[in-house]
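[stage:ingest] chain + small molecule (manganese (II) ion)
[stage:ingest] validated
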Amino acid sequence: MKEKILIVEDNPQNMRLIEMVLRAKGYTLFKATDGEEALDMAMRERPDLIIMDMELPKLSGLEVTRKLRETPAFSSIPIIAVTAYAMKGDKEKFVDGGCDAYLSKPINTRELPGVIAQMLQSRQKDNA
Ligand code: MN
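[stage:predict] done
[stage:export] tokens:
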């Protein structure tokens, strides 16, 4: 069975774009459009990987990531941070906050599937 991916993104255009790219790869997708919904959806659906916009209503992507990392079930799930406002030190901030990888907007739709496949693969190795 194909892996479950949770897309957290409040911008409808970006959401559609990411959804289209991943749908074509056959992943099972779940969507959340704010930080609280992201937490609820993650707990309920137990995705294999999360794509997390950092700029979200209610809770920021970083706050959601920190909360998930406090939960044992989410201590090692791959989380890819996505941000439109890449500034010096951001990458370090997101990685320190518990994200495994970092992509800047606009999303590179050619790069995204490869990054995801690689992270899912290395996760499987860790669990083996
Ligand atoms: Mn956003």
